[in-house]
Amino acid sequence: MRPPLFWYRNKAALSFLLSPLGMLYTAATARRVRQTPKHRAKVPVVCIGNINAGGTGKTPTAIALAQKLIEMGQTPHIVSRGYGGSLEGPVLVSPSEHRAADVGDEPLLLAQFASTWVSKDRAAGVMAAEGAGATVILLDDGFQNPSVFKDLSIVTVDAVKGFGNGCTIPAGPLREPADRGLARADAMLVIGPMHARKTFQPALPSNCARLDGQLDPLPTGMPWQGQRVLAFAGIGHPEKFFATLKGLGADVVRGEALDDHQPFTDALLTRLETEAKTRSLNLVTTEKDAVRLPDAFRAKVSVLPVRLSVPDWTLLDAKLAQIGITSQ
């Protein structure tokens, strides 16, 4: 589902009405994160998670960190729950053999950059990665999951959305109160345009370092300037993708905002293709959406990939060194 608009509005009536349920959600999360981890890996575990529900840039962060670790001579493996996939795991994701219905869309994308495991039981996935030779494990979206001990936790935050109205689900976008989450985090990575990053300045506990980054589109050879497009995206905040295309000069005639991880039915794809042909538009989507497309349809769609750029990794380098992760 797409996040409700009232999650990002202060003093919204619906937030007030839902606040008792939010308090119950907060209490349930607090009980969960207090549990003692049942597994401690023999190699460092770096968790990439969030306090908000979805759409904060975890996947680009996992890709960037995996690439950084590989450059350092490490062998990172990524462990994911595989949201949207049917396989229980642990299973090593193979982009040539698996589909999004098997392992989820994000693991299919992540597997193009580093060995990626899908496991509903996070501890079992971490043990499988250990056994396969990982020197570092990246735990994707496991910040509130207590099953594995985390040596380092990085919380990603969208600079534009921030922490919304500050309420927990369903009254707001937070999985837990921001101050409690940041108190457990080692780093907060704020992702977005510079003006938004300058505006978003929450108080941080002394243990939590701040890093800033932004998502930059990769060159694709597509002359986006003046290109009339029908863009579609099933990510946390599709409007960010549409804005990126407009920033490249594309004429986004229409943007189809789908639910996060929404399956592509034959009816939906036929409708999109028919509209694009009728209006002489170029179909464009995200990398994460592209891995869910049927093979026969992919050739009809242009893909705009984005990558996280972090101008200064110094603070994170120091955090990594503290847990024994250095260049080999």
Total of helices: 12
Low-confidence stretches: none
Highest CATH level, the class of the largest domain? Alpha Beta
Major beta sheet, strand line-up: 3-4-2-5-1-6-7-8-13
Major sheet details: 9 strands, mixed
Helix coverage percent of residues?
25-40%
**How many DSSP E strands?**
13
Using the 3D structure, state the CATH architecture of the largest domain: 3-Layer(aba) Sandwich
Report strand %: 15-25%
Topology as a string of helices (H) and strands (E): HEHEEHHEHEEHEHEEHEHEHHEEH
Average pLDDT figure: 93
Classification by helices and strands? alpha/beta
Shape: globular
Could you explain how this protein is built, in words?
The termini are far apart. With 328 residues, the protein is α/β, with parallel strands linked by helices. The protein has helices spanning 13-33, 58-71, 100-103, 105-110, 122-131, 178-184, 194-199, 238-247, 266-278, 287-290, 295-298, 314-322; strands spanning 45-49, 76-80, 91-92, 115-118, 136-140, 152-158, 187-191, 209-217, 228-233, 251-257, 282-286, 302-304, 306-309. It contains twelve helices and 13 strands. The chain has two domains: 5-215 and 309-322, P-loop containing nucleotide triphosphate hydrolases (Rossmann fold); 228-304.
Task: Label this structure with key terms.
ATP binding, EC 2.7.1.130, lipid metabolism, globular, alpha/beta, Rossmann fold, nine-stranded mixed beta sheet, 20% strand, P-loop_NTPase, 13 strands, 328 residues
Q: Concise description?
A:
Keywords: ATP-binding, Kinase, Lipid A biosynthesis, Lipid biosynthesis, Lipid metabolism, Nucleotide-binding, Transferase. The protein is α/β, with parallel strands linked by helices.
